[in-house]
Amino acid sequence: MSTQSLRWWSWIHKWSSLVCTAFMLLLCLTGLPLIYHHEIGHLLGTDVEAPALAPEVAANPPKANLDDVIASAQALYPNKIMMYMSQEMDEPAIWNVTLGDHPNDEHYKPIAVDARTGKVITEPAFEGGAFMSTMLRLHVDMFAGLPGMLFLGCMGILLIVAIISGVVLYAPFMRKLEFGTVRHQRSTRLKWLDLHNLLGIVTLTWALVVGATGVINTLSDVLLKVWQSTEIAAMLEPYKDAKPLAQMASVDAAMKAAVAAEPGMQVGFIAFPGTPFASPHHYGVFMHGDQAFSSRLYKPVLIDAGNGSITDRRELPWYLTALLVSQPLHFGDYGGGWMKFLWAVLDVATIVVLGSGLYLWFKRGRRVKAEAKLERQVRAAQPALARSGEQA
Amino acid sequence: MSSPFVKLWGMPIVLGILTIVGLLSALFGDGIWDALSAVTLGAPVLVGAWYSLRRQPHRP
Fold it and tell me: Is residue A18 a part of any domain in this protein?
């Protein structure tokens, strides 16, 4: 590598890292508890468990009518409307219902309803309680909504630039060294430079994947808007002159129609009229598979909320499929306990890479300044010496 | 087989491939695939931990 291109890559690495480091440290620190949100919820007592049924019932658990599930949740908040109801793959005994003042209510009420008896289990803490909610909001948008998300997306792009330029710089630094060399005996700066290079190169692929999928996730709201204004709008075309809904068709019947239309798939969630996943005239029943990979992909079935008939069903567009596939790769929630642990260790290693990078920049800055000062002193001293020479 | 390229990039490339295998295998299956993912994703973590924590013997 020529001196000129080395200088150029160093400049890119320095500035792309410096700009994003503070935010990346924030994301790494807040991401750590988010990896373990299930376990933390269990410790804090904010997670929801379905009550045990009598043994004779538990052997062959009943399935409550969805209209009854909705009715028991709405009985708690008669003035609020349904937004979503969803079920997790590994917890078929619970329907997670959300109610709001309007279909886009950010301060929605979450309610857990027993999917077997249709009785309310509890009102879970909002976003897992104050601590987890703060971590989540800091991680997703720093309490700044869509601009905050997109800003963090830009920081993620800078992280990717920093990683790639770091890999380019790895070569000239490591050419004369064995892989994994850490020079403990020389200086603190050299030791941290070696650790920065070592941990940077071993976490490289993981950090690139988590960084890139994180950037994709920051676009989720924008992608949903695109989907709404194109595909959903097309599906709604026949309804453009329809009157507002006077009466709502049975959700239970809608769900059964969707299940019959997509054999082999399960209901992931149901979006109610007016929410971003449905339309003002439809229930959006989102079906997914039951295998490790197919459970990540959703197929929307739109059901006329007036008469309960299926209006349209489509594959998700490629950009929403990309978003859904990128989510597990960012969260690390798809491979069990070991994967969570490795995710946490790689997260901590990334914090060390960020911290050591900051330290190296600080040290180098001070060294460059000290050298410049010395040079100035030498230069200032020279004329005086020269003068004294003349006098002699 | 110890050209300068292999000496410099051999280990990073191997760890990169193992990481990709680890990230993808758990995505496409459960059980044995999760185990494969834990082993392959664990490799870069172990390599990083080993080299950063070991103390090299004093060289004269």
Answer: yes
Nearest to A289 by CA among A321, A333, A337, A331: A321
- Identify which of A203, A328, A334 has the shortest CB distance to residue B44: A203
Interface test with A, best of B27, B32, B39, B47 (most A CBs within 10 A): B27
Number of domains into which chain B is organized: 1
Residue B31 counted as domain residue: yes
B14 Cβ under 8 Å from any chain A Cβ: no
Q: Is B30 domain-assigned?
A: yes
Shortest alpha-carbon distance between residue B60 and chain A (Å): 12
Query: CB A280: neighbour CB atoms within 10 A?
Result: 14
Q: Complex ipTM, two decimals?
A: 0.93
Q: Residue B5 falls within a domain, yes or no?
A: no
Structural domain including A359 reads: 3-26+142-218+336-368
Q: Tell me if A97 is assigned to some domain.
A: no
In a domain, A331, yes or no: no
- Predicted TM-score (pTM) of this structure: 0.87
Question: Using CA atoms in the order A272, A277, A283, A285, what is the torsion angle rounded to 10 degrees?
Answer: -110
The total number of structural domains in chain A stands at: 1
Helices (H), ranges, chain A: 3-35, 37-44, 55-58, 66-76, 129-140, 145-174, 188-202, 204-218, 220-227, 233-236, 251-261, 318-331, 336-391
Contact A329 B12 (CB under 8 A): no
The domain in which residue B30 lies consists of 19-46
Which element (helix H / strand E) includes B10?
Answer: helix B4-28
How many beta-carbon pairs below 8 A join chains A and B? 100
| A11 domain residue, yes or no | yes
Using a 10 angstrom Cβ sphere, with 0-12 exposed, 13-18 middle and 19 or more buried, the burial of residue A185 is: exposed
Any domain includes B37 = yes
Is B48 within 8 Å of chain A by CB? yes
Question: Running along chain A, 392 residues long, what does each successive block of 10 average in pLDDT?
Answer: 90 96 97 93 82 81 93 95 91 93 91 93 86 94 95 97 97 92 90 96 97 96 90 82 82 92 91 87 90 84 90 88 93 92 97 96 82 78 56 43
